[in-house]
Amino acid sequence: MIVAGIGCRKGAPQQDILAAIAQALQAAMLSPDRLDLIATAAEKGGEEGIAAAAAAFGCPLVLVPPGELKIAGEKAVTRSERVVALFAVPSVAEAAALAAAGDGAQLVAPRRVAGMATCAIAVSGDEPGENP
C-alpha cells in the first residue's frame, strides 16, 4: 500500500497539495496511479484542499488520531519546530503517511514542500516501493 501523508497550513489550496504530492511521488519514483491513500492529522480533517486533492486522486482520505500520529512521528526523518509546537510530531506529513501505512511502514520520500503544503510517501511493510 502506498500512502501520501499531507501536512499544510490552514486554508492551503488544492493546487499546493497536488503539487506536493506530485513532487513526493516523483522523488519516490512512483506513478500517481499507484497511490492508495491520502492521510493527514485528524485536526486537519476540515481542510478543503486536502479533501479535494484526495477526491482528485480518487483515494480515500484517512484522518490519523493524535496518539497514532505521535507514535508514527518517532520514525520521521525531517523536523519542523513549528510543527512540533503545534502537533507534537516532527513532521505531520511523514507521521501521517507512516501511521496510515501501518506496522512496518517505511518512508520512500521524506517531506516535500510546495507552497503551503507538504507531502511524504510511505509504503506498507510488504510493499517494495518500486515501480514494477
UniProtKB/TrEMBL annotation:
GO terms for biological process: cobalamin biosynthetic process. Keywords: Hydrolase. Residues 2-122 form the CobE/GbiG C-terminal domain. InterPro entries: CbiG_hydrolase (IPR052553), CobE/GbiG_C (IPR002750), CobE/GbiG_C_sf (IPR036518). One of its GO terms (molecular function) is hydrolase activity. PANTHER family: COBALT-PRECORRIN-5A HYDROLASE (PTHR37477:SF1). This is Cobalt-precorrin 5A hydrolase. The lineage of its organism: Bacteria, Pseudomonadati, Pseudomonadota, Alphaproteobacteria, Hyphomicrobiales.
